[in-house]
Design goal:
The protein has about 150 residues and is α+β, with helices and mostly antiparallel strands. About 25% of the residues lie in helices and about 35% in strands.
Length: about 150
Amino acid sequence: MSDARLREFATRYATAWSTQDPQRFAAFYTEDGRLQINDGDSSIGREAIAATAGVFMAAFPDMIVDLVSVAFDGDGDVDGDGDGDGDGDVDGNTATFHWHWTGTNNGPGGTGLQVDMTGYEVWTFGPDGLIKESKGHLDQAEYDRQMGVVGES
């Protein structure tokens, strides 16, 4: 996968987050793919990944996820053949996807409060060029603050 193809993949991935179609989002993952947000439980398999995405999509029906940046981690030789062109298999290679997320918590039981956050995901690709594993990271304290969650003193 070339850098240009990675950017195109990441753009489509961000768009899928914004579609209110959890199955479309889950299609970016291998059949046995894994999605983890912060240190929470992993969603394993497309059905579980779609369910996790569906929770966010329902809670934030106007949710927009934008690509901020994406890049392969390491030396950029994603196919391991030494030429750096990324024209072969990407199995076991990683990329970091930085995103910007906005939306209003207007879903069932919503607060009406808006979220405006940045974060990132570290992707490991399977041999088919789909995401085998995504480890997502966001500032939980900032999310809680924006959602009006008051911590214990």
